[in-house]
Design goal:
270 residues, mainly beta, Porin, 14-stranded antiparallel β-barrel, two-stranded antiparallel ribbon
Amino acid sequence: MKKLRWGFSFLVLMLASQPVLSQQTIGARSVSMGMVSSALTENDWALFGNPATISSEKLEIGFYGLRYYGFPEITDISSTATIPLNLGAAAFGFSRFGDELFAETNIRAGFNFQKERFNAGITLHYNHLSFGGDYGSGGAIGINLGVLFQVTDQFYLGSKARNINNPKYTFDVGDEDLASDLSVGFGYHMEEKATLFVDVVKDVRFPVSYRGGLEIEIVESFIGRVGISTEPVTYSFGFGYQHSRFDINLAVQQHEVLGMSPGLDMIVKL
């Protein structure tokens, strides 16, 4: 069993060398649409995506989990809370990935400023990596920025930059940079019940990733979603149910090599 668990940890480290890292895409809605987030309006998990899209309509509390490729040892667990303010909204969140052999913990706070058709947001987050045995741990503080423009009633443009301060984990044996990337995307409401989202994401360490997703209201309050991404190639789909007091979203993502990852989130509106 111990060898098996070390095998899971080795898989985690292998994943860390790919542009599909833990806690970069949080929320079943985004995952089910190819991990788009730059112009994903009404995003309950915007604290982990583009902070400019943090919702300011209601006080909300959310819970999310995604199990990578069926392995319980590599699971994302997250929570978030959003508080409406006069000029926008504030949000607070927590996420954790892994187990005692390898774990990544993220604590963050964000603020969204809204002015007519323009939104801007900022996120401050603390990342902590912990390795089992005598390998130690390290932490770093990062800053994310985001903007959103409502060009027309149907068309939105968004952009976000992650870790603009170039933070580094500090370990006993040396330092390691946190991932930094820039994304630009749009959302287009093709008709009353269908919206298309497209993102272009450039991590400083990897090739450009193209992402796209489609969201359709199948019947009242019941939403269907599909998505695709490159670098790495993934296919995804999901469903959502919207109620005046809560939302439930389900996502399934298929990696071209590693397999299937199911995810679920729930948002409670207070």
